[in-house]
Design brief:
The protein is α/β, with parallel strands linked by helices. It contains 9 helices and 18 strands. Helix content is 27%, strand content 25%. A 9-stranded mixed β-sheet has the order 7-8-6-2-10-1-11-17-18, with helices on both faces. Strands 13-12-14-15-16 form a 5-stranded mixed β-sheet, covered by helices on one side. It has a two-stranded antiparallel ribbon with strand order 3-4.
Length: 343
């Protein structure tokens, strides 16, 4: 994918999220690249899920890149950050959505300049803000996914997603490639069959956790969440159970518990809502797949591409072309360095 193709790939959608694997992975650089190259083609809306950290990285003592918007753009940010937006602005709406930095306010940029963006921290509010911005005439709403919050990539929030990775994740190039490939794989987990999807939705409508057996009967557990319920889930497994349905986040602790009780879960399939809900690394996923336990989703994520940042603020970098080529051999989506332009 060349640098122009990443822009044209956005055209069919009215909402796209950009999420990063790690601090300084190049997410804001990717966002600024998109904003610059969409200039004059669309009315852009911009918000975020929460706020991605501080203005200055306290570890590296380097300033984070700012976000530059063009005149006519629409921005949703917290009231206390309006003074940090060096644009002439018109307030379009107050949303009633509270954050630690004040109510989310929707503004229109009457001049070009830098903005400081902090949006709602939960998806239902983010959807409300997105819809308000679309109602104010945005052609495309870009959602800056905050650190470690992948929820903005879910299909209810955005129609498509871009994942950003970079050298800041680790000085070990092999590890960065491996975990980047793993994250892509999790976001692109296969959908379950229509028959199983119907049963899964029945379980999630009545509870958060349940089983589907070989005869397609369902059993719902009276548990509000899988967090800290590992023992109860393991104790509830029966010989004829075939699928474990999990609503909400799937933690490392639960997966470790399933692996420890692998004899009960051989040839099982875990159904989750989408790939943003699972939080395990490549090593744990490998152990799970060896049992074997499969992972499937109700909704697959529309992942457009992977952007890579070969430079780390910790004083080291990768050779851009080699980094991109190694990523490309390990994943099945387009890879691009939006700074260097390497494929």
């Amino acid at each position: 994918m060349n640098t122009k193709k990443i822009i044209t790939s956005l055209f069919p959608y009215n909402s796209v999220s950009i999420i990063g694997m790690e601090k300084n992975s190049g997410k804001t650089t990717t966002l600024n690249y998109i904003l610059k190259n969409l200039k004059g083609t669309k009315v852009i809306g911009l918000t975020s899920i929460g706020r991605d950290g501080e203005d200055c990285d306290k570890v590296t003592n380097t300033h984070k890149p700012k976000i530059y918007v063009e005149k006519g753009s629409i921005v949703a940010t917290a009231k206390n950050l309006l003074c940090k937006c060096d644009i002439t602005k018109e307030i379009l709406a107050t949303t009633g959505i509270s954050t630690p930095m004040g109510e989310i306010i929707i503004i229109k940029a009457l001049s070009s300049g830098f903005v400081d963006v902090a949006g709602p921290s939960y998806n239902s509010a983010l959807i409300k803000v997105r819809d308000l911005m679309l109602g104010f005439g945005c052609d495309l709403v870009l959602i800056d996914g905050a650190l470690s919050r992948k929820g903005s990539a879910g299909n209810l929030v955005s129609e498509a997603t871009i994942l950003a990775t970079g050298a800041s994740f680790s000085p070990d190039l092999t590890k960065v490639v491996e975990e980047s490939s793993h994250n892509v794989k999790m976001l692109k987990l296969p959908k379950c069959s229509e028959k199983i999807a119907v049963l899964t939705k029945q379980i999630l409508k009545k509870g958060r956790i349940g089983f589907i057996d070989k005869e397609l009967n369902i059993e719902i557990l009276d548990l509000p969440t899988s967090l800290n319920s590992h023992r109860e889930i393991v104790d509830a497994v029966k010989l004829n159970h075939k699928f474990l349905v999990l609503g909400g986040a799937v933690s490392k602790g639960l997966i470790e518990s399933l692996i420890q009780n692998r004899e009960l879960f051989k040839n099982f399939t875990i159904i989750i809502e989408d790939g943003t809900k699972i939080f395990i690394d490549s090593n744990l996923y490998h152990k799970l797949s060896m049992i074997p336990v499969n992972l499937e989703v109700l909704d697959s994520i529309n992942l457009l591409c992977l952007t890579c940042n070969p430079t780390s603020p910790y004083g080291y970098s990768f050779e851009s072309k080699k980094f991109c080529e190694l990523l490309k051999t390990s994943i099945d989506i387009d890879v691009i360095d939006v700074v260097g332009g390497s494929l």
